[in-house]
Amino acid sequence: MSPALALDLEVAAVVAVAVLIVALAAAASGACRDDAGTAAAAAEDVERALGGATLVAYAQAGEAARARQRCCAFCQSEYVKAPGELVRVVPACGHFFHAACDADRWIRTRRTCPLCRGALWPPAPRPPVRAAAVVVVA
Ligand SMILES: [Zn+2]
Ligand SMILES: [Zn+2]
């Protein structure tokens, strides 16, 4: 192999590696943007789930929900209808937990219902699909 050919091959290899690095960096930055968007949306869901609207007195939690959930999943003690007993309600499934039992920490770190492990919020309704206009040319 001549020295000139070896140099050409070396330059070609360096260019190929540089192109690969740029392509990987571009793909990675795109992936990071998507992850950041998803993470931001999930963080927003968590903050909404931990808002004042989901912190209610046990007596205010839905009657049907109270009938099927008599004990707190964290402390296993029965709920009482004392005015000061606040519960954190998961909007998607209606499960609730003593606020004092720190369900908030679970929700903040795992982003799911502590009891059923379901999502915090029901899935957003999909926009209606509009029928495409049909033009008939006679
Ligand atoms: Zn509890
Ligand atoms: Zn649940």
From TrEMBL:
Q: Which SUPFAM superfamilies match?
A: RING/U-box
Keywords linked to the UniProt accession = Metal-binding, Signal, Zinc, Zinc-finger
Q: In the record, which residues are listed under signal peptide?
A: 1-27
Q: From which domain of life does this come?
A: Eukaryota
- Keyword Signal found: yes
* Molecular function GO terms recorded: zinc ion binding
Which InterPro entries does the UniProt entry name for this protein?
Answer: RING-type_E3_ligase_ATL, Znf_RING, Znf_RING/FYVE/PHD
- Tell me yes or no: is Ribonucleoprotein among this UniProt entry's keywords: no
Q: Where is the RING-type domain?
A: 72-117
Q: What is this protein called?
A: RING-type domain-containing protein
User: What species is this protein from?
Assistant: Hordeum vulgare subsp. vulgare
